[in-house]
Design brief:
Strand order of the largest sheet of chain A: 1-8-7-2-3
Distance between the termini of chain B: 34 Å
Largest sheet of chain B: 3 strands, antiparallel
Number of strands of chain A: 10
Largest interface: A-B, 39 and 30 residues
Order of helices and strands of chain A: EHEEEEEEEEE
Helix content of chain A: under 10%
Distance between the termini of chain A: 27 Å
Strand content of chain B: 25-35%
Structural class of chain B: alpha+beta
Strand content of chain A: 35-45%
Shape of chain A: globular
Largest sheet of chain A: 5 strands, antiparallel
Oligomer: heterodimer
Strand order of the largest sheet of chain B: 1-3-2
Chain lengths: 134, 59
């Protein structure tokens, strides 16, 4: 199991923090996804690829920050995404623009095997921890 | 400016299952195991079940 913040995601974080030429007011971490692909994420992954099942959803509320930890929460309703969740990810675009093929990945966790029944709501909580390594 | 910037970002995950109307937490746990989830990774709380969390969970 690997939890990654991809190069593309780090670029988005840098663009947003410094409002570089690549900055866009609509491009920030705002969508969650889950899929059933067994393909591992790598540092240079940009898209989810072509999983058989791909489901994306907006966060329940605005993410929160405490110290260096930012928390993102998404609740999947009981009837949605009833398949084996093998990868989860965060994306830097709206749900309307996020697909398996969109180059919107910021970070993700792979090699999971979480089975969501079709009558049970699941809440996913993803934190990004920014660490000062000095 | 001569101070090096040494920073990193890491992602962590926790998955929580909520009991549907009329279920208690033990029935939810049994259903999740029956569906194929790994009981070794599950934690029963008072009114929900943690299905999975990364080892470095710090949320």
């Amino acid at each position: 199991m690997a939890d990654n913040v991809f190069d593309q995601g780090l670029q988005r974080i840098a663009d947003t923090a410094s409002q570089t030429a690549g900055y866009s007011s609509s491009r920030y971490i705002r969508t969650f996804s889950v899929d059933d692909s067994s393909t591992a994420f790598t540092q240079t992954t940009t898209t989810a690829g072509s999983p058989t099942n791909f489901y994306d959803r907006a966060f329940d509320s605005t993410p929160t920050r405490s110290g260096l930890v930012v928390t993102h929460t998404t609740t999947i309703p009981s009837a949605d995404a009833a398949f084996t969740h093998r990868r989860i990810a965060l994306h830097d675009d709206t749900t309307a623009n996020v697909t398996g093929a969109s180059a919107t990945l910021v970070c993700g966790v792979d090699n999971l095997s979480i089975v969501k029944p079709n009558n049970v709501p699941f809440t996913y909580v993803i934190t990004l921890t920014y660490a000062d390594n000095t | 400016m001569n101070r090096n910037v040494e920073a990193s970002v890491s992602a962590q995950l926790r998955v929580i299952a909520h009991p549907p109307e009329g279920w208690n937490v033990l029935k939810l746990y049994d259903e999740l195991v029956h569906a194929g989830n790994d009981p070794k990774k599950m934690i029963i709380q008072d009114n929900y079940v943690i299905v999975y969390q990364t080892e470095n969970w710090d949320g």
